Amino acid sequence: MLVSSLAVFAHHRLGLFREFIYLAQMADIINLDIEKPAAVSTAKDFASANKEHFDKTASHHEDKRWLELARRAARAITERYKFDEDSTTVMDFACNTGLLARELAPHTKSIVGVDISQGAVDVFNERVLNQGIPPEEMRAVCIELKGVEGELDGQKFDVITCSVSYHHFEDINSITKMLSFFLKPGGTLFVVDISPSEKEGHNEDSHQHHHHHDHHHDGHSHGSSSDALFPEHVQHVVPHKHGLSREMIQAAFDGAALTSFTFEIISTVMLHGKEGQLFVATGTKSPA
Ligand SMILES: C[S@@+](CC[C@H](N)C(=O)[O-])C[C@H]1O[C@@H](n2cnc3c(N)ncnc32)[C@H](O)[C@@H]1O
């Protein structure tokens, strides 16, 4: 126990996977660089690796450049849905410390953040407490949702949001089905994430997700790591190292029986000199 605590402390001190996002001086491009880790733990499934990673980074996640990204995501979402602060209930999935949730909260009746990182959820709830917001209006829970009756006290939502997290999910098809389970009939799912830029030449690859590969789901598993959008040192927490194409997102939404699919580019991001496109995708659960 002591040994593992020391190991965690040492990793933290060495700045394991601190992520930096900064706004480019010019235009409205977001420049996102991710610091190289001191050590990489391998041999973990993506969910466990993410939990470990985000537990360690929670306390210093709230860089103002991440905040700018959350603001752009929030703007894209609020421009595309008629929120009613007296009635709209929201789940923010993979909420981390609540950057997006805090931007959306003023537009909602209530917002529940969900994340697998206890460290991130603790920071989320501490912020809510400090702002004097009652938990029935805003809170986060640490749970790996399955999409079965009884989870989240049976609550269903008008809107579910998930921002810059889909690239962390190994199986976006099952995550989307699971999220659809938590939508009310007629409810809307918003996914904001990063798509490969056409300039980076991955659009052709992105069609391969329909082919079955043994261990991966995005069709990029045989591609070179070095030409990926996400740098090699974070690829153990990023199964979709080339980002997510429109086709991949649409297939996931279709598979979850979400209709009225839309997909729009809202911003440009730079990751270690590679250009990506920030997109917002929406889909609606059929009315009962
Ligand atoms: C880049 S952060 C999300 C940022 C956040 N949406 C915001 O607005 O600031 C990615 C998050 O995904 C969470 N995550 C990764 N895999 C997950 C899973 N399978 N279920 C729930 N959360 C997950 C991580 O713990 C982390 O907090």
Q: Largest sheet, order of strands side by side?
A: 1-2-8-9-7-6-3-4-5
H and E order: HEEHHEHEHEEHEHHEE
Helicity, in percent? 25-40%
Low-confidence stretches: 1-26, 38-43, 203-222
Number of strands: 9
| Gyration radius from CA atoms, angstroms | 18 Å
CATH top level?
A: Alpha Beta
Bound molecules: S-adenosylmethionine
Q: What's the number of domains?
A: 1
Determine the mean pLDDT: 81
Shape: globular
The biggest beta sheet reads: 9 strands, mixed
Structural class, please? alpha/beta
Instruction: Determine the strand fraction and express it as a percent band.
Output: 25-35%
What is the H level of CATH, i.e. the homologous superfamily?
Vaccinia Virus protein VP39
- CATH T-level fold name: Rossmann fold
**Amino- and carboxy-terminal Cα gap:** 51 Å
Structure, described:
Pfam families: Methyltransf_23. Residues 198-227 are annotated as: Disordered. Residues 198-207 have a biased composition (Basic and acidic residues). This protein is an alpha/beta fold and 288 residues long. The chain has a single domain (2-285), classed as 3-Layer(aba) Sandwich (Rossmann fold). 28% of the residues lie in helices and 25% in strands. It is built from eight helices and nine strands. A nine-stranded mixed β-sheet has the order 1-2-8-9-7-6-3-4-5. The N and C termini lie far apart (51 Å). S-adenosylmethionine is lined by residues 47, 50, 54, 70, 94-96, 99-100, 115-117, 120, 144, 163-165, 168-169.
